[in-house]
User: What shape does this take?
Amino acid sequence: MATAGRDPGGRAPAPGSLRLVQALVNTLNVEFARDLLGTRETAAAWLTAAGLLPALSAGPVLSAAEHADLLEVREAIRGVLAAHTSQDPDQAAADRLTRALASCRLTVTARPDGGMSLASADHDPFSRALGAIAVAIAEAAVTGTWARLKSCPGHLCGWAFYDRSAAARSRWCSMQLCGARAKMRTYRARYYPGPVSPPRAAGPARTADGRR
Assistant: This one.
């Protein structure tokens, strides 16, 4: 699924349907001001490419309200992922995501094998798209993978990454990039507290596609 850059840390994507949620958050690259959902047309194209909207000959079109709702879902998810990173429960972020997904109507279906499945019960294409996102989050919460999807707290970052570390305590999208930058800022604040900054040390640079 298309994202606004390569994963800076070179991590493998999130497993299963959670990859959809990760890709949605990463449609925005804050550092390079690249947004795959920036217009109604590009947002509809991304949803179609992700299999969330039907492919129409003329191309699907989102209304202004639908576009705004999609952007709100993305940023509400990012807020919850930030709480996953800090491991500090954030009720406001949770409430924001609840409101963003409140319009989704989901249904539980019993399978012949005795299992249960969750699916969107909406007939409207856009509502079904949001429902699929909600289902992916719900499934990840059940399997225990949801809490491992995090957003990097680095300055002008917010990149969503999947934490596969044993203790699930990864904090940065890349220790060589955002982690190193944070350490440098801490060092400067400690040893150069005045208004004059020391010469900037050379460090790893990130291109628009996340490569070094």
In short: The mean pLDDT is 88. The first helix runs from residue 18 to 25. The chain has one domain: 1-212. The helical segments are 18-25, 40-49, 64-86, 91-100, 125-143, 175-191.
